[in-house]
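Re: your question about O-methyltransferase YrrM

S., sorry for the slow reply, the queue was backed up all week. Below is exactly what I fed in.
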Amino acid sequence: MNALPTTTAIDRDHYFSLVAAYHGETTREQDAGVGEVHPEWAIGLADGRFLFDLITENALALTIEIGLCEGASAVHMAAAHAVSGFGLHFAIDPFQHEYFGGQGVRSIDRFGLTSWFRHIPERSDRSLSSLAAAGVKFDLIFIDGDHRFDAVFNDYYWSDKVLRDGGYLIFDEAGRDCPTKRVSSFIQNNMKNYELRPGPSRFYVYQKITKDDRGFGDMIDF
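Result:
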């Protein structure tokens, strides 16, 4: 892994103007028919601010998301590292160019955040397992990729392997009767080393308090 960048930092005022421009340009790209723009999938400005504040206020250095899409969450999180002056944000998305026309990567580049960002063009199970094998630990993981139950659970399973104790695990699409809700129910009922934290209504925000101490075969219905 490359050394964490410590240059090209931006100030908070720059961040505020940057993200306002991002959300405006996403709307214009939709109107212009650039790639497959899906604004209904993207997080909103307040959701992005939550991620930004969580990173900057807790001095989180390594962050990663599963599912880059148009880059809404990536812009906020990479900008958080730029404002902090340290850290790096990763985004796993094997379909970034095939399905989204490179919009997420292009947004990062357009707003001058390339130094604070790395795109991983592989499946999440392969990339996360490789990171786990390398002993990499992240401070924040944002899961917003394939929303089928088995995929969300698999993303949770591997994310747990690369999340440091004290780190944050965040799921998008909370508050809906969807697979993410079932995975969250599993965590709340079985993973006592995770605590649910306050957050935006569309997020499940967990903090990993300590290591998993379940016994072999322990299971509570969810």
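The first strand starts at residue 62 and ends at 66. The mean pLDDT is 87.

Happy to talk it through on Thursday.
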